[in-house]
Amino acid sequence: MQISRLRFGVPVVLLAAFAALGPPPAPVAAQAAGGGTLLVAEPFTGAAADPRFQGFGSACLTGAPAAGGLGDGLHPLAACGADRVGPVPPAGGAPFGFLELTDAANDQAGAVLFDQALPAVEGLEVTFDQYQYGSTTPDAPADGISFFLVDGAGGLSAPGAFGGSLGYAQKEPGFTADPPFIPGVDNGYLGIGLDVLGNYFGDWERRGDGCATPSPSGTAFYVPAPGENMVTVRGPGDGTEGYCFLTATTDNLTSTGPWNSTLPGELHGPLTALPPGADAEEAAALLEPSKRTVTVRISPAPAPHVTVDVDFHDGAGPVQVIDFPAPEPVPETYKFGFAASTGLFTDVHLIGGLTVRSERPLPMLELVKEAGAERAYAPGETVEYTYTLRNTTGVTVPDVAVVDDRIADLDCEATTLAPAGAEGDTVTCTGAYPVTDADAEAGEVTNTAEATGDGGRVVSNAASVTVAVAPGGEPGEPGEEPGLAETGPSPAAAALLALALAAAGLALLRSTRRAA
């Protein structure tokens, strides 16, 4: 039995439709126009979310019915508390829910962490909706929301420091006699700050400690903060070292302020209140003007670049607001998270509509192909093939199909794969191939199969099998190699020759003894 087998162990969430297949061409890695492989798709609208997300602090799902307190540390992403502050979406709001990082109470800190490595080799595209609004201190809204990436080789069990560090960078809190130095997120790679208040821009509180190049505003404390309404980016860091300022949406990167934002709109939304008794659907509609859709892209190596687009939903569409070289070295895998907090100043911070995909397609399905028996076939016989396709992703893969370069019609028991490890994560297909005279002349038949899904964005490994074909139209026995043409003497003639040689040798031996 000959099996071609490769493993690609990358979990993902896949939602899409696969176009109908015509007659099978030679297999190639299918790709949908303008898109890579969908790795995560979580709208956060329901009463539950992808279990690979973990909440931290005040992070919760407004789609779930209200529950008790969440505590300060890591917890399963679940319901929000019953006593929330500000114009928050009502609890139990599925299917019109959101990921709530904080309500508008003082001194809240919330994050959501995706502690599962995603491949970096083909680039990354992350799109999400963010909502910052509803401050109870409207003259000075809260800090902002961060999206951050860490090196996937390490763990991700807690965010970094909050406040102006936005859950990514380190921080030595000011205004106290002997403040503790709070580390940034472990194995940090890139922190994108959607910085409403503006402190993430500066190195006050020892952000960027140990960096050769400081923030343009340095370590001074500013009122108002130096980088309000900016997208600010900080680079790799671990513990209390690094998280250096990289760039920001400003037309002034010198050390002399002011530092004016070049964003064409406001990150902070206009909603200040919800009508009494508004249900979840009404709240979602009223939140639309406060929605800002953000897309972060990291191009594939070599020399990857990072771009950030923001759609302010003002009719202008997505606008690229920043473009810079990705920090080197680029990790082999990423993990990611979101964070936000309140302090003396407050806001409601929400996330929705999250998708994560590679920039170019990735193989995410495992295909194993087998022939019916290990034997030599003859022309006119049929080779029976079995194709076993397994989902290696974290959630359902719909509309998968297997294509073989020699067999037009394959029969599959199902076209949807359950998440890896669940019942139904494997599907079996069968196909038959009639052996021809041309195959007998070639002495073998090799055919190759490949599986696709998600509109061609998901591909499997290529699986090939070679079977022997006996010449002369005679099938071989199981396990028997095809016969070879006889080019030497027959067995009988060989035996007679051996006897003659033995007799001649014996006669020569006797003659030699007499002569002695």
TrEMBL record:
Keywords recorded for this protein, A-Z: Membrane, Signal, Transmembrane, Transmembrane helix
Membrane spanning stretches: 492-509
SUPFAM superfamilies: Concanavalin A-like lectins/glucanases
Domain DUF7507: 363-454
Top-level taxon of origin: Bacteria
InterPro entries per record: ConA-like_dom_sf (IPR013320), DUF7507 (IPR055354)
Signal peptide span: 1-29
Pfam families the record matches: DUF7507
Keyword rRNA-binding: no
Protein transport as UniProt keyword: no
Name this protein carries in UniProt: DUF7507 domain-containing protein
